[in-house]
Amino acid sequence: xxxxxxxxxxxxxxxxxxxxxxxxxxxxxxxxxxxxxxxxxxxxxxxxxxxxxxxxxxxxxxxxxxxxxxxxxxxxxxxxxxxxxxxxxxxxxxxxxxxxxxxxxxxxxxxxxxxxxxxxxxxxxxxxxxxxxxxxxxxxxxxxxxxxxxxxxxxxxxxxxxxxxxxxxxxxxxxxxxxxxxxxxxxxxxxxxxxxxxxxxxxxxxxxxxxxxxxxxxxxxxxxxxxxxxxxxxxxxxxxxxxxxx
Amino acid sequence: xxxxxxxxxxxxxxxxxxxxxxxxxxxxxxxxxxxxxxxxxxxxxxxxxxxxxxxxxxxxxxxxxxxxxxxxxxxxxxxxxxxxxxxxxxxxxxxxxxxxxxxxxxxxxxxxxxxxxxxxxxxxxxxxxxxxxxxxxxxxxxxxxxxxxxxxxxxxxxxxxxxxxxxxxxxxxxxxxxxxxxxxxxxxxxxxxxxxxxxxxxxxxxxxxxxxxxxxxxxxxxxxxxxxxxxxxxxxxxxxxxxxxxxxxxxxxxxxxxxxxxxxxxxxxxxxxxxxxxxxxxxxxxxxxxxxxxxxxxxxxxxxxxxx
Lengths: 246, 308
Description:
The complex is a heterodimer.
Chain A: E1 12-17, H1 26-35, E2 45-46, E3 54-55, E4 60-67, E5 76-82, H2 91-94, E6 101-103, E7 110-112, H3 122-126, E8 133-134, E9 141-142, H4 148-151, H5 164-168, E10 174-178, H6 185-193, E11 209-211, H7 224-228, H8 234-245
Parallel strand pairs in A: 1-11
Antiparallel strand pairs in A: 1-10, 2-3, 4-5, 6-7, 8-9
Chain B: H1 5-25, H2 33-55, H3 75-98, H4 105-127, H5 133-136, H6 140-162, H7 169-191, H8 202-206, E1 213-218, H9 226-231, H10 240-264, H11 271-295
Helix pairs in contact in B: 1-2, 1-3, 1-4, 1-6, 1-11, 2-3, 3-4, 4-6, 6-7, 6-11, 7-10, 10-11
């Protein structure tokens, strides 16, 4: 049923630290690797080795430049992983005409039942975050499942029972947990670092949070060029002056 | 947004057919059973043709029947349910009238109300999307209803003229002028509804507003993808001005002149044909405008790709 649950028992989601992400795309690659063989239809590619390659990804890494208003502050490069935010008020779910899209009561994960999806694409239009992609080969909507086939999977080691993107991040920029429990590690992290909602004005109440980059050091003053040419002293100083006279 | 031909054809044709159902249900031409047969058949056929076109948009048409299940939450599901009930109601009204000679006008009104509700549901599929301000911050339902009802009225009147009934030409002119006015009203509102209408920007999209001005340094992939093709459509906007002019001329000006011509020819018998030509022009013009309705609409998701 595509009506949203009044409340969910848990709010499982991701916390992504924009201060730490190095933009290596490992999470996106591992996401594609796991999910092309996991839940539902494979994540297909079209013309993968040709002139115009494209394909289905559930996680895409953008890179932004941020130029501060204050002139002496240096510009920053911020790597920005983008995937489904498993919103509490998910507009993608309520627009679904077939009942294929749903939000789970037990953990708040937003999923697509691909056997019921007719591939109309309206949910992708309703999502402000570009988190849903129609697979061109399967004709059904694909989206992040929060690796629902990993996190409860008792056939894999306990350390692997987190979403593939979290497991693969070499920098520790991605965290997984229950954001509905104020005492959970992820909730504490969000509270400590001032975790943000993306596009709050769209009224979607995202579960996933983004931790803003920490303020950077000030740019060094104009002495930088002098530091690169240290003044020679003693014997080297004499040699330097002598050579200059020749 | 990507202007899929199936969606342009679907929304225009089903709108026209539903407008016809509404006017037939309201009792236009009810003095002639011959009109009932022809008008009823064409109205149901045009609506059905639109429905078939909409299936062409689907990735898994075999699951299309499930779209009748989620009417509690989904406008698309409501549209599907209402469209079928409107057609059944009209078929019942016409069947009782034409086969059993029992014309129950209230049943016609029910069919008309259901047809009107279907047009409204179609418009709400677009008007509900906060992600597309030029649909949600504009009088989109008024636009869809004005187009469907004016087109339907002309089509029904053309058939009335061809079977020898008197055509409500003055009424058509009022509706055409009203529809043109609604289209202009919608366009002025849409022009003022960029991606930032609800306050969205690259800064709110990335949550980096406190740090400064955000711009895209590198997209996720060098190639294109579904999101860009579907929701960051840029092709053809260069010809928007010409298309809008074509829409205004074909959709409204030519039909108004032809309707006046039909008025002048009302005694010759050719008036119905002239009005039928007006309907064809009107549909072509509305299709051009509907193409722009999609092609010019901007989705907030494109902010992630640096499209301010």
